[in-house]
Amino acid sequence: MTKGGNKTKKLPITTAPSSNWKKLLPAIAPKDGQTKKKRKTDDFEISPNYKGNKKQKLEKLKNSKKEKEQKIQIPKKDELWFGDDIDDKILKDVYGDKNSKALDKQRLVDKMDIADTKLGKYVAIDCEMVGVGPDGEDSALARVTIVNFNGAVLLDAYVKPLEKVTDYRTHVSGIEPKHLESDKAITFKEAQEKVAAIIKNRILVGHAVHNDLKVLMLSHPTLLIRDTSRYKPFRKLAKGRTPGLKMLVKEVLGISIQSGSHSSIEDARFTIELYKSVKAEWEKSFGARSGLIMKKIQEKEEKSKIRKKKVSIKEEITVIKQDRIEEDGSDGSSGSDSD
């Protein structure tokens, strides 16, 4: 009602569709035997910022990578005016293989070969074993390699086993009798001492590194070990099982290794590359406690160096004093009269 007391008229509600809507209905109505389908989630793309969309993002990255690789086409020789003078391999390297994993691997290895051999805070180890005892079932150290954070070789040595070798395992280890019979092969004790000196107070990276330490008869603080075979995100790639190094390098780095027998240099280098690819997240999992312990270890090492330096200085002073006493005594005896 209005202020004046007059009743307001209610407008009738029209339910009949317009003429345009009637014309459109036959076109959008489902045909006989068809039902309206629900839209699948695959029909639209979820925002890349959505946290639960990691799988889709990975698939998208893989597909875009494949598309890029497919776009790279190697021209035919007859399409190039200088084609007759070009070797097929050079043509492939220039036009087609710039992004190939074989070249990526070679470039990475070349970079490691010229890397600084500074020791640093992180080292990676890999050992090759041979079989000893009945049927070669027991393992003995035959080669040990340690590389630094940049993949530069710090130690690579063939090691003479303490027992007689009954299985060289050449197809896997790459070890042959000539390697262990060479004059360049070192004793087990020498290898043990060299490794112990390098890994002391450092973060040790390795794949199934407990096997390497076992065969070397060495121990290392658990907090300073980074075992790529036990890292949870890597184990997920193997559905909870222990992943192989070859599989991890292929899945994580996209590079093929161990095409033939193993190389301890190659294995150690790509183990440190695996670690570097997840270093930030892996180290976060240890929390502040790890950092404090590392700081204490470094302080202890510095104090030890200072102590050794002081001892060496004292020893030098003692030697100098002893030399002077001997010189004074000889001079005195030669200058005395013997009446």
From TrEMBL:
The Basic residues compositionally biased stretches are 1-10
GO BP annotations of the record are:
ribosomal large subunit assembly; rRNA processing
Localization per record: Nucleus
**What InterPro entries does the annotation carry?**
REX4_DEDDh_dom, REXO1/3/4-like, Ribonucl_H, RNaseH-like_sf, RNaseH_sf
Q: What is its main location?
A: nucleus
Statement: the UniProt record of this protein carries the keyword Nuclease: yes
Q: Which residues form the Exonuclease domain?
A: 121-284
Where do the record's region annotations for Disordered lie? Answer: 1-70
Q: Which family does it belong to?
A: Belongs to the REXO4 family.
Q: Under what name is this protein listed? A: RNA exonuclease 4
What organism is listed for this UniProt entry? Answer: Rhizopus azygosporus (Rhizopus microsporus var. azygosporus)
